[in-house]
Design brief:
The complex is a heterodimer of chains A (566) and B (164).
Chain A (H helix, E strand, L loop, with lengths): L1 E3 H11 L4 E5 L5 H9 L5 E4 L3 H15 L3 E5 L3 H5 L1 H9 L4 E7 L15 H5 L5 E4 L3 H16 L5 E7 H5 L1 E3 L19 H13 L3 E5 L1 H5 L3 H11 L3 E3 L14 E4 L6 H9 L2 E5 L5 H4 L10 E6 L13 E4 L2 H14 L10 H11 L16 H11 L5 E4 L3 H9 L8 E2 L10 H11 L5 E6 L9 H7 L5 E6 L4 H10 L15 H7 L3 E5 L2 H13 L5 E6 L23
Parallel strand pairs in A: 2-3, 2-4, 4-5, 5-7, 6-7, 9-10, 9-12, 10-11, 12-13, 13-14, 15-16, 15-17, 17-18, 18-20, 19-20
Antiparallel strand pairs in A: 1-8
Chain B lengths: L1 E9 L4 H11 L6 E6 L5 E9 L2 H13 L3 E6 L5 E12 L5 H11 L3 E5 L3 E8 L1 H10 L5 E6 L3 E4 L8
Antiparallel strand pairs in B: 1-3, 1-4, 2-3, 5-7, 5-8, 5-9, 6-7
Classes of the chains: A alpha/beta (566), B alpha+beta (164).
Bound molecules: flavin-adenine dinucleotide and thiamine diphosphate (TPP).
Thiamine diphosphate binds next to helix 17 and helix 20 of chain A.
């Protein structure tokens, strides 16, 4: 049977099992929207209020399900509005397939109305992209796009579709399989390297497991937990890796890096064996690279060979999928005559427990003083039983969320780490809530960040998304202010927002519930009240201490053992 | 160190700009880049000459490999290899005796005169970079009007080959 390009597009999505598309219509995608209208019983389209919001929502969907998020936007401004989200997904390895409308083929290159070279614009921030130039290429290209986005190191793939292709008709058949001769990610780790790794594990006196987003992306939390328990080693997670190992477990020493714990960073510094798993030695994690882990041998497991020895030279590289490699490591270790002797690391644990006594995340909430952000996150954790999905924006509140909400499960902590995109949190929460309609979804934000995609409050109303927004309102672009306080002699250049909206009224104007909380004593009650409103979005504006700082901190250029404590 | 990297990639629109974009985005050097389709029309072969420490060149190779359009690549520095470049040079021959100089030097360099005009000769030279530089130097007493260089092409010696 002959179908139009637009119908073929919809059939392809169905064949990929896509249940949700996040998007925004416009001229170049009108045929596609018409086909979607007819398919609305099978494919749910979520109309965002800005294309950036659509992409972040798709990221939230993807990060919380490990399924690719799907986005559809029009040409020109629709496509350029999507770029921030695409770049965000690229940095955090989020599987996305983004479809952009393009002007008809005959007009390409003509500076036609709403024409941009989106393939050119996004080339450096996608895993791959395509311009479909023939109708017969449409289905195979979509197949390739999903395959590339979701295999190997995941990432965004963009498919640009000229309008005339969506209008013309042709035969539809969806390829059942695809193979791309130039793309074959290595998923199985090298056996010899696995053996070498276990040799080192058995010898280590001061070992550290340093694990990241790759564990979450691989769906390997179970294997990681098993390996960690089997070795008895201390484990730290990157910001992106939180939830990969239960944060309430005694072997967990907290996040590492710039705002990591005293114990995690000191342990990294003094370690003699770092086992890096699905983590990419980001500069926020390593601090000064010259001073990074001076005594350690390093094992690095990653699916992307280009991350290995990129920033830090490693001793045992293992290219492969974390899930497979962890299974191999476990098998190899179990196969040895002797496992890790707990004696071998007793002194190390003693030392770590000494560092823990610093109690680096302590804070002092005076009940008659201003609300401290840390206290709000602590209470949120209590009130939600540690079981919520938590998205966040970017800034101090993000760090407090990471430090104080103890994630025991993977895919629960959804934030923007690599690009650090303010405005991520609210739309991401929409995607999470759509994927998990019955779950508690909290968005921890700041008074600056929340305004960057505030328009999505309307989307939340349209789809009745009962997200709980927790704005930690310090009146400042707090993270910027903190740096200015520490490193620019308190010259608060443009980090104070003299005018803020009345968030309660704003929430109400959008049809939601608004709350302002000003006293520490009201925090818990307000959270409970909000959580009880199961079917309403509640915007909670917590007026928090204006000049509160995130501690501990590894200042730029410093080593892990040179932290600023409170 | 200078490295000659041979790349086989899909002969598709935009593939070349992915390579070029990678180098500019990551701040790698490109000394020269040549590209043309191979005997298999679905593939292009690039020869890319770059400069960098061993670590950087290793990253370059990995990043290139990561491009979906790149099918295979080979750092020719890892093998005995041959490097060739072609150059077209237009030389002003109006000066007394210039024609003879061009002929003599072309002979020595096994270059070929491929166009003869009243005012100028055009010569084609093939060889290593050094040879081409030497050819230009040898012409120093004449006025060179125009130089076109192809950039290096490379191939491994012996049976080693870069095939899809
Ligand atoms: C304000 C701010 C402050 C920050 N402070 C910190 C901080 O203190 N500490 C911190 O840790 N981060 C911090 N970050 C985040 C930081 O910028 C990086 O985003 C983060 O450290 C990267 O995490 P990751 O190493 O886990 O890598 P990710 O970006 O999560 O990358 C995942 C890695 O796993 C690999 N991978 C993916 N899938 C697989 C698979 N199936 N198998 C094997 N490997 C796979 C990928 O190739 C990649 O190398 C901060 C960010 C912001 C915005
Ligand atoms: C889109 C964007 N612009 C600018 C920045 C730089 N930036 C990082 S944190 C921050 C301040 C965030 O302020 P707020 O959302 O109020 O959170 P707080 O730090 O106060 O918790 C800024 C401006 C950014 N990360 N993203």
């Amino acid at each position: 049977m002959e179908l139009t390009g637009a119908e073929i597009f919809v059939e392809c999505l169905k064949a990929e099992g896509v249940d949700t598309v996040f998007g925004y219509p416009g001229g170049a995608v009108l045929y596609i929207y018409d086909a979607l209208y007819k398919a609305q019983n099978e494919i749910n389209h979520i109309l965002a209020r800005h294309e950036q919001g659509a992409v972040h929502a798709a990221e939230g969907y993807a990060k919380s399900t490990n399924k690719p998020g799907v986005v559809l936007v029009t040409s020109g401004p629709g496509a350029t509005n999507a770029v921030t989200g695409i770049a965000d997904a690229y940095m955090d390895s989020v599987p996305l397939v983004v479809f952009t409308g393009q002007v008809p083929r005959a007009l390409i290159g003509n500076d036609a109305f709403q024409e941009v070279d989106i393939v050119g614009i996004t080339r450096p921030c996608v895993k791959h992209n395509f311009l479909v130039t023939r109708l017969e290429d449409l289905a195979p290209t979509i197949k390739k796009a999903f395959y590339i986005a979701s295999t190997g190191r995941p990432g965004p793939v963009l498919v640009d579709i000229p309008k005339d292709i969506t209008q013309m008709t042709g035969e539809f058949s969806y390829p059942s399989e695809i193979s791309i001769r130039s793309y074959n990610p290595t998923v199985k780790g090298n056996k010899r390297q696995v053996r070498r790794a276990i040799d080192l594990v058995l010898e280590a006196k001061r070992p550290m497991l340093y694990t990241g987003g790759g564990v979450i992306l691989a769906g390997a939390a179970k294997e990681l937990t098993e390996f960690t328990r089997l070795t008895g080693f201390p484990i730290t997670n990157t910001l992106m890796g939180l939830g990969g190992y239960p944060a309430t477990d005694p072997q967990f020493v907290g996040m590492l890096g710039m705002h990591g714990t005293f114990e995690a960073n000191h342990a990294m510094h003094d370690s003699d064996l770092i086992v890096a798993i699905g983590a990419r030695f980001d500069d926020r994690v390593t601090g000064n690279i010259e001073k990074f882990c001076p005594y350690a041998k390093i094992i690095h497991v990653d699916i992307d060979p280009a991350t290995i020895s990129k920033n830090v030279k490693v001793d045992v590289p293992i290219v492969g999928d974390v899930k497979n490699v962890l299974a191999d490591l476990i098998e190899e270790l179990r196969g040895r005559k002797q496992g890790v002797d707990p004696q071998q690391i007793t002194d190390w644990w003693k030392q770590i427990n000494e560092w823990r006594k610093t109690n680096c995340l302590s804070y002092n909430q005076q009940m008659d003083g201003p609300i401290l952000a840390q206290y709000v996150v602590d209470k949120l954790w209590e009130v939600t039983g540690g079981d919520a999905f938590v998205t966040s924006d970017v800034g101090q509140h993000q760090m407090w969320a990471a430090q104080f909400y103890k994630f025991d499960q993977p895919n629960r902590w959804i934030n923007s780490g690599g690009l650090g995109t303010m405005g991520f949190g609210l739309p991401a929460a929409m995607g999470v809530q759509i994927a998990h309609p019955d779950a508690t979804v909290a968005c921890i934000s700041g008074d600056g960040s929340i305004q960057m995609c505030i328009q999505e409050l309307a989307t939340c109303l349209q789809y009745r998304l009962p997200i709980k927004i927790i704005t930690l309102n310090n009146g400042y672009l707090g993270m910027v202010r903190q740096w200015q306080e520490f490193f620019y002699q308190k010259r608060y250049s443009m980090s104070y927002m003299e005018a803020l909206p009345d968030f309660v009224k704003l929430a109400e104007a959008y049809g939601h519930v608004g709350m302002r909380i000003e006293k520490p004593g009201d925090v818990e009650g307000a959270l409970r009240e909000a959580m009880a409103m199961k079917d309403r979005l509640v915007f909670m504006d917590f007026i928090t201490s204006a000049e509160n700082n995130v501690y501990p901190m590894v200042p730029a250029g410093a080593g892990h053992n040179e932290m600023i404590l409170v | 160190m200078r490295h000659v990297i041979s790349i086989l990639m899909e002969n598709e629109a935009g593939a070349l700009s992915r390579v070029a974009g990678l180098f500019s985005a990551r701040g790698y050097n490109i000394e020269s880049l040549t590209v043309a389709p191979t005997d298999d029309p679905t593939l292009s072969r690039l020869t890319l000459v770059t400069m960098g420490s061993d670590e950087i060149v290793e990253q370059i190779a990995k990043q290139l490999h990561k491009l979906i359009d790149v099918v295979k690549l080979m750092d020719l520095n890892d093998y005995p290899h041959i490097e060739r470049e072609m150059m077209l040079v237009k030389i002003d021959v109006q000066k007394q005796g210039a024609c003879d100089v061009v002929k003599r030097i072309s002979d020595i360099f096994r270059a070929r005169i491929i166009d003869v005009g009243e005012k100028s000769y055009t010569v084609e030279v093939t060889g290593s970079r050094g040879k081409l530089d030497g050819f230009l130097q040898a012409l120093h007493e004449l006025r060179v009007v125009e130089v076109v260089r192809s950039g290096s092409m490379g191939i491994a010696r012996g049976a080693i080959a870069l095939n899809a």
